[in-house]
Specification:
3 domains; about 290 residues; flat; alpha+beta; 10 strands; Alpha-Beta Plaits
C-alpha cells in the first residue's frame, strides 16, 4: 500500500509540474500581448480611442481570452488526470484488501485491520473497536460481498462476538494472522445475512401491497426479482405484493419513489409509514 501511495504522489507531482510549466508559458504570452498593445500606443495621444488603438485592444483582448481559455483547459485536464489516479489508487487498495481477505478465507485464518472513520474535518482516522482501547479489529472472515459499487467483508467480530459487516474501502490493508478462524454460527447463511443487511429482510417478513407507476417497474423487479406477484392495472399503473420486513430500511426505499409508489396495505404498515414521515418532518422542521 505504501508503494502504491508513493507512485500516486510521484505521478501527481509530475502532472502538477507540467501544469505549472504550461501555466507559466500561458501567463507569459498574456503579458506579451499586453506589452505589444502598450508599444503600439507609445507616443500616440488617446491611442485607445483611435481606430488603430481599438483594433489593437481588441487583438490584445482576443489573445488574452484565447490564452485564458487554454489555461482553463489545462486546469481541467490536470484535475481529470489527478482524479483518474485517485480512482486507480482507490481500486488498487480495494483489490489488495480483497485479495488478503480471500487468502485468509482459503487458508482458514483470522485477519486484523484498522477501520477508518471520518472526523468533522473530513480526515480519515483509525476507529477504536467498541469496548477496546486499541485500533485493530480481529475478524474471522466468511465472505466478501459486492453491493452498491462497494466491497464489504462479512465475518465474525471477536470483540463484538457476532457476525458483522465492514466496508472494505474503509479498512487499511488487513494482516492475515496465524490463527485459525472461528467457524460461522450454526445455520448461518451468507445470502440470508446479506439480504438482512443490504436489503429489506431484517426481521419477520410481511407481505405488503404497493401501487406503482410503470416507470419504476425495472426498479421493482431489480429489487424483488422477476417472480414477484404483480398485477397490471392499466398502461400507467400496477400493483405488486412483496415480502419485506416492515422497517425503516423498507420505508426509506419506498420514500425515494414519492409520487410513483404508495403503500396500499396492510393498514398498520401504512400507519407506521405515516408516523415515520411525521417524525421526520418534526425533526427536520422543528
Amino acid at each position: 500500500m505504501a508503494e502504491t501511495l508513493r507512485e500516486l504522489v510521484v505521478a501527481l507531482s509530475l502532472d502538477s509540474s507540467n501544469f505549472s510549466r504550461n501555466m507559466r508559458t500561458i501567463n507569459a504570452q498574456i503579458k506579451e500581448a499586453e506589452s505589444t498593445f502598450r508599444l503600439a500606443g507609445a507616443g500616440v495621444e488617446n491611442f485607445e480611442k483611435t481606430i488603430a488603438g481599438t483594433e489593437a485592444k481588441l487583438s490584445m483582448l482576443g489573445n488574452k481570452l484565447t490564452q485564458q481559455h487554454r489555461a482553463v483547459e489545462q486546469y481541467s485536464r490536470a484535475l481529470v488526470a489527478a482524479n483518474e489516479k485517485l480512482k486507480e489508487n482507490y481500486n488498487r487498495h480495494q483489490d489488495y484488501s480483497v485479495q488478503y481477505i480471500r487468502k485468509a478465507i482459503e487458508g482458514d485464518r483470522q485477519i486484523s485491520f484498522q477501520y477508518l472513520r471520518y472526523t468533522p474535518q473530513k480526515k480519515q482516522v483509525p476507529k477504536h473497536p467498541a469496548g477496546g482501547s486499541g485500533t485493530d479489529y480481529v475478524v474471522s472472515p466468511y465472505a466478501t460481498v459486492w453491493n452498491n459499487d462497494r466491497y464489504y467483508l462479512v465475518g465474525w467480530s471477536h470483540r463484538r462476538e457476532k457476525v458483522t459487516t465492514f466496508r472494505i474501502d474503509r479498512m487499511k490493508v488487513p494482516e492475515v494472522l496465524d490463527r485459525k478462524r472461528l467457524p460461522p454460527p450454526e445455520g448461518f447463511d451468507v445470502r440470508d445475512y446479506t439480504d438482512k443487511v443490504f436489503w429489506m429482510f431484517d426481521g419477520p417478513k410481511e407481505t405488503v401491497t404497493l401501487r406503482c407507476r410503470t416507470g419504476i417497474l425495472d426498479q421493482v423487479i431489480d429489487r424483488f426479482g422477476e417472480d414477484v406477484d404483480l398485477k397490471v392495472l392499466d398502461s400507467s399503473m400496477f400493483d405488486v405484493k412483496v415480502p419485506v420486513s416492515v422497517s425503516s430500511t423498507f420505508f426509506a426505499w419506498v420514500f425515494q419513489f414519492t409520487g410513483e409508489m404508495r403503500i396500499l396495505g396492510p393498514g398498520h404498515v401504512r400507519e407506521k409509514y405515516a408516523e415515520m414521515l411525521e417524525d421526520a418532518i418534526d425533526v427536520t422542521l422543528g
